[in-house]
Amino acid sequence: QVQLVESGGGLVQPGGSLRLSCAASGIMFRIYAMGWYRQAPGKQRELVASITSGGIPNYTDSVKGRFTISRDNAKNTIYLQMNSLKPEDTAGYYCQVRGTSFWGQGNQVTVSS
User: Fold this and answer.
1) Does residue 85 contact residue 16 with C-beta atoms inside 8 Å?
2) What's the rounded mean pLDDT across residues 36-43?
3) Whose CA is closest to 79, among 111, 100, 57, 54?
4) DSSP states along 58-105
5) pLDDT tens digit string along 13-31?
6) How far is Cα 87 from Cα 52, in angstroms, rounded to an integer?
7) What is the average pLDDT value for the chain, to the nearest integer?
8) Most distant CA atoms of the chain, gap in Å
């Protein structure tokens, strides 16, 4: 069955960095676009970043220049490098196989002093 296992969240001070990972199994990973979403309490889930099967990234405006999405097809893994973190980045972060109902379990990122 398809599994997406996330890691890398945690608590960080404003201005700090974190890297999230999402390891996929049970799918032909290299042919799928992938995405990172986030959901803060009381807010809708939003697409933060996506990456095509060919490695072309796209970002929501609020994270451009601060977040970087990447993929390693040899490891069936996508990453989200988050720099210059702000308190408003606090949310649960979820990876997804784009165009499917396959989601990771979620990973909490808290940005606070």
Assistant:
1) yes
2) 96
3) 57
4) EE-GGGTTTEEEEEETTTTEEEEEE-S--GGG-EEEEEEETTSS-B--
5) 999 999 999 999 999 999 9
6) 28
7) 97
8) 41
Question: What CA–CA distance (Å, rounded) separates 18 from 11?
Answer: 9
**pLDDT tier at 105 (50, 70, 90 boundaries)?**
very high
The dihedral built from the CA positions of residue 38, 43, 44 and 49, taken in this order, carries a sign that is negative
Q: How confident is the model at residue 112 (pLDDT cuts 50, 70, 90)?
A: very high
According to DSSP, the β-strands at 107-111 and 10-12 are parallel
pLDDT at 7: 95
What SS3 state is found at 21?
strand
**Rounded distance between C-alpha atoms, residue 44 and residue 12, angstroms:** 23
- For the beta sheet containing 34-39, the strands, ordered from the edge strand earlier in sequence to the opposite edge, are 10-12, 107-111, 91-97, 34-39, 46-51, 57-59
Report the C-alpha gap between 84 and 89 in whole angstroms: 10
